[in-house]
Amino acid sequence: MSTTTTGTAVPATAVTETAVTETSVPRTADAILARARELRPLLRENSARIEEHRRLPEDIVALLRGAGVFRAAMPRDWGGPELTSMEQTRLIETIAYGDVSAAWCSMIGMDSGIYSGFLDQDVARRLYPSLDLAQSGWIYPQGRAERVEGGYLVSGRWRFGSGSTHCDVLAAGCTVHENGEPVIDPATGKGLWRVMLAPPRSYESIDTWHTTGLAGSGSVDYEVRDLFVPQEHSFSFAEPVRKGPLHDAPDAILRKMAGIPLGLGRAALDHVRELAAQRVDRETGTPWARDVRVQQTVAELEMELTAARAAVYTTLERQWTALERGAERGADERVETALARYHAFRTARRIVHRLFDLVGGASVYRRSSPMDRWLRDANTMCQHAVAQDSILQLTGNVLLGGRSSSPFF
């Protein structure tokens, strides 16, 4: 059994859904984080159901919406909490401790507040009439947007639509064309990249998400042909309308991602430390709590997680302070958040692998141990671009005096 935020007992297989009104949703960073902490055991108990569903069930979406997760980045002058990048990361870290797929969808869902800052504000208010609307979509330019009067005709197929099965606004990254020819961006020398925003019902959803890990994220493909998108419902990350740390650097949508591996690593370590209080080594008869091998492994992994976590929050705070002040950032400052994020993903995967081996045969049972799911989630999440070795090449090039070929640092 588990409890909802009101304390009512519910089965792990069915979360009681309550009506979400804007007045009932927490409004501050502290209140949203507190509500997320309350959801952790409930998310953990529903992890198997989330995975089997291959998307977030409606009642789980309602809980996240009611906890204020999707409004996290909404601007203060709209009545939103406008969490800093550090606060957003802590929020995602907290949710990931309960369920990784729920955290992945939450991480993307709260981009609604960030995207709103790249649109004319009257248009943004119409596109996001509620603070609690969830965003989704693949922003890299896999589609084509042909310029026509008043906007674009959008065609293409996009992958990894995490959360698109429950989102309110769906994004699609496109290369702009005019009269059949690509429009070149003079700043990059490449095709002009714009992100198109439209209701998810405008697209055809294609059920491709049969995966090893992050199975509950519903990261299906979606496609469309000749969808008209008004000019004002599109944006470029190079042209923020709002000013401030969430919009003055285009990597704002990536900064909070490190919360996912940090929450996963913390959950796995806490789980094994709880096991150690009761477990005895079968061969030697030594209690795990007094087993040198177990002690050393746990201490080493705690050290690695602590270091990775410190790097994430230290670099985020340094970046945030510099952006608030409008300070110039050198090569080291521009890439350090990307390196800390990459390191957090790789560290979490290493932690889960080591603990899976430490626990041994008991790890392989899906229904009695979370280790199997965490192992699969850890491997799948590290296939994202932010955790690939290409990040080392891109950042190393900048550190050695080269020009960044990434729009995000």
Verbal overview:
There is one protein chain. With 409 residues, the protein is an alpha+beta fold. It folds into 3 domains: 10-118, Acyl-CoA dehydrogenase/oxidase, N-terminal domain (Butyryl-Coa Dehydrogenase, subunit A, domain 1), CATH 1.10.540.10; 134-235, Butyryl-CoA Dehydrogenase, subunit A, domain 2; 252-399, Butyryl-CoA Dehydrogenase, subunit A, domain 3 (Up-down Bundle), CATH 1.20.140.10. Helix content is 43%, strand content 15%. It contains 13 helices and 10 strands. The protein has helices at 29-45, 47-53, 58-66, 85-98, 100-109, 111-115, 121-127, 252-255, 259-276, 292-325, 331-359, 371-381, 390-399; strands spanning 2-3, 9-10, 135-148, 151-161, 169-178, 181-182, 193-198, 204-206, 220-230, 234-235. Strands 3, 4, 5, 6, 7, 8, 9 and 10 form an 8-stranded mixed β-sheet that branches. The protein has a two-stranded antiparallel sheet with strand order 1-2. A hairpin with a 2-residue loop joins strand 5 and strand 6. Helix 11 (331-359) packs antiparallel against helix 12 (371-381) and helix 11 runs antiparallel to helix 13 (390-399). It is globular and about 75 Å long. The N and C termini lie far apart (46 Å). The model is unreliable at 1-18 (pLDDT under 50). Residues 259-388 form the Acyl-CoA dehydrogenase C-terminal domain. Pfam families: Acyl-CoA_dh_2, Acyl-CoA_dh_N.
